[in-house]
Design a protein that fits this description.
The complex is a heterodimer of chains A (174) and B (133).
Chain A lengths: L2 H25 L2 H17 L9 H19 L20 H4 L2 H11 L3 H12 L4 H8 L3 H32 L1
Helix pairs in contact in A: 1-2, 1-3, 2-3, 5-8, 6-8, 7-8
Chain B lengths: L5 H12 L5 H20 L3 H25 L20 H10 L6 H10 L1 H6 L2 H7 L1
């Protein structure tokens, strides 16, 4: 085994479960999350000087978030369960929640956030990390992280309310 | 129309955050990713592929150069230098020759010319020289 393999296997052991959990939450699909984890590690392997990356965890997290939302764009209806397919892919605890359309709407709204705000928002509200931890990971000031999170939640609220208003108008027209 | 409050959104986000992958999914992920790390490492990457190609090309080039270096190249025949003492036949010479002995007096020049330029001596006749005059 070469150095890169050993480094990646160690990283998988340390951060794999956390990244996999985040991808499951962002895609609402365990199978897709496993596929994206594979894609993530292929991308990491292709980096020529992997050892020079200062914060591999932050770097991998950013790639994982981008992969999840790229997949979401490609398969808009990925949260729908195909007919005739056993529903083993969804965690039983979250089954009730996933079937709620609002969950998908929130993810759709998160998708519309810009790069840094989205990363900050996901780390704070979905990964439930402290502001200090996020600031350390993103190499920013805590106040900046707080501002980004606040901006994110306001934007999410605005997007959801706009969507709600358009649905309301459509319903009245019908 | 109901508007979302920040608190409602945070509640929904908390629900989203509570989703955890199953143990089976985690095991599958670990196994698949470990296999991928091993498999990808065994295959030559693009950089390695290029390196192999470059080494092979350089080796072929070196072999070619060494073969050329050790092969004796047949030298082309050298151009025979004209001897500076080659006799020249001028009008003055010809007049002198005719005055002194006529056609037989030219034999000396023809003999010399034959020594130095065999083909030219054979092809030049007295008639040609007289025509030129």
């Amino acid at each position: 085994m070469n150095k890169k393999q050993i480094q990646l296997l160690k990283f998988l052991e340390q951060s794999g479960p956390r990244l996999h959990g985040m991808l499951t939450r962002l895609t609402l699909d365990e199978t897709v999350a496993v596929e994206l984890m594979q894609e993530l590690f292929i991308r990491l392997f292709e980096i020529k000087q992997l050892e020079k990356i200062k914060n591999l965890q932050a770097y991998a997290c950013r790639i994982a978030i981008n992969l999840a939302f790229d997949r979401r764009r490609q398969h808009r209806s990925f949260s729908e369960i195909p007919e005739g397919r056993p529903d083993h892919r969804i965690p039983h605890v979250a089954l009730r929640l996933i079937q709620n359309e609002e969950m998908d709407m929130i993810l759709g709204a998160i998708e519309q956030l810009s790069g840094q705000t989205r990363e900050c928002f996901i780390l704070r509200y979905i990964e439930q990390m402290d502001y200090e931890q996020i600031a350390e990971r993103m190499q920013k000031k805590t106040s900046h992280v707080r501002a980004l999170c606040s901006k994110g939640i306001q934007r999410i609220r605005q997007i959801l309310n706009d969507q709600n208003a358009s649905f309301y108008k459509e319903a009245i027209n019908e | 129309m109901n508007k979302y409050t920040e608190q409602q959104i945070e509640e929904k986000l908390n629900q989203l955050a509570s989703i955890e992958p199953s143990g089976d999914s985690l095991r599958r992920m670990n196994q698949n990713v470990s296999n991928i790390i091993s498999d990808v490492a065994e295959k030559p990457t693009k950089t390695h592929g290029f390196l192999y190609y470059a080494i092979a090309s350089a080796a072929v080039l070196l072999i070619g150069i060494s073969l050329l270096y050790h092969t004796e190249i047949i030298q082309p025949p050298k151009i025979v230098q004209q001897i500076p003492t080659e006799p020249t036949l001028t009008l003055a010479h010809l007049n002198a020759v005719f005055n002194n002995g006529g056609q037989t007096a030219l034999d000396e020049y023809f003999e010399k010319a034959q020594i130095h330029r065999q083909p030219r001596a054979d092809s030049v006749t007295l008639e040609d020289i007289l025509k030129e005059l």
